[in-house]
């Protein structure tokens, strides 16, 4: 009997397979198609020749843990203990899974804000928790009245995703104020803050849970080197949490994977000294602006994009097709693969919106827009 009877092949896998089958331009999965920094590749080549191919400590390469602590201090003015409050993970998804398995118990309720990333609910279900799916407002901002109404003595965790995938929204100061007011009423609730796109924000800068001292003792922050350094295939991220929570997360982590790829950790440890993640937002803002300018010539209605490398667009004003059929038609008839938003919603709510990934080279974006103009 299946533990996850309602979980099927992810929409990301499905659309990438269709893109390959029909030789379509793939704007579906969230990965860059441009080269990785040559400096990083050179560092990797160097370390492959060294004898560093055995297990590293379970928490991570100590020097890299120190570098992450410094990055957190420089980015957010938060001091964390590298030996007790940081854990290197096999991508952000594994960090999220380990945190939920460690901290959510049978019948604990976990609030998930839809549209939401598809790994959240299965992780809660495998931990025998109860996912409480709540919709964001129509403009994809948090609905604090609905969140407040859903919280009770059984609420164990709220999962936040900021900057938000798939919509590109970022939280405001007021959002954090509202969250903190609610947490004052429910002192046992833990925040799982998915911040994998933390360095990819534009006009308004990212506000992190790291910025909020009131949250530090009850928040698990999840970050991604894959997203920040354009190396999604490396599957490496990290978790920052207070020691009391991290002790439990590490118990799951060591049973699940023990330690992370040694070469990747050594390489990132060196590379973090020469890369400026603070400039990542400017890099992607240029791509966002370029893609949005190209899309002005299409029928799509673009939503604001405040962060991430995703652009949500509405098509409901010119087509009544459900979003799953619509994206399949885009692949088969127009040669562009995108992601529908319905799989991000409980029970597959169809809001007639799709998601584009603009983390692509200019030639790819131009060709995509040319094809989409034919709609």
From TrEMBL:
Recorded GO MF terms: transaminase activity
Name under which the protein is recorded: Methionine aminotransferase
Cofactors (names): pyridoxal 5'-phosphate
Chain ranges of the Aminotransferase class I/classII large domain: 24-371
Pfam family, one: Aminotran_1_2
SUPFAM superfamilies for the chain: PLP-dependent transferases
Coiled coil start-end: none
Domain of life: Bacteria
InterPro entries according to UniProt: Aminotransferase_I/II_large, Kynurenine-oxoglutarate_AT, PyrdxlP-dep_Trfase, PyrdxlP-dep_Trfase_major, PyrdxlP-dep_Trfase_small
Species of the source: Flavobacterium myungsuense
Alphabetically ordered keywords of this record: Aminotransferase, Pyridoxal phosphate, Transferase
